[in-house]
Amino acid sequence: MTLISLEALIAIGDSSRRTWWRRISDNPSFQKGTDPKGRTVISINAAREFVALPHDDSTLAMLMAADAGDPDSQNDAGLMYSELENHRAAVYWWRAAAEQENADAMQLLGKCYIEGIGVDVDEDAGIMWIARAATHGHIIARTQLKGLRPFIDWRSLELPPVE
């Protein structure tokens, strides 16, 4: 049986944590458990009734790898949900990947914060994520930072250390 975390379902769909718990308690056929990370997981098949999930094997495998914590798969899930115009889900996956030092996800997450796509506009957070991507050698992020040079007081900006 394929299981997906409750956190992923909340990010992908439109339902709150409270709504999901109500569904789980109201439906004894929902098979739930706990994964090694301590997260509540439920059956993909049960979840399909309430949220659109991929049906093809390769996309579902990518989503399962993303949910398990693989940063490249998380970035790919962000790209997939962005293309589907589910920007809140895209931001969820990009943040998860960015927190694991995925430079592509950092740059895309920064763009979301600057443009207010899937999150409230927060230019400081956007610049921070783009700067972090640049410190990891991301060429687009480096170009974006070069374009911002005339507009930013770099002495007052705290950037993460270069590793």
Automatic annotation (TrEMBL):
SUPFAM superfamilies: HCP-like. SMART domains: SEL1. Pfam families: Sel1. PANTHER family: ERAD-ASSOCIATED E3 UBIQUITIN-PROTEIN LIGASE COMPONENT HRD3, SEL-1-LIKE PROTEIN. This is Sel1 repeat-containing protein. It comes from Pseudomonas abietaniphila.
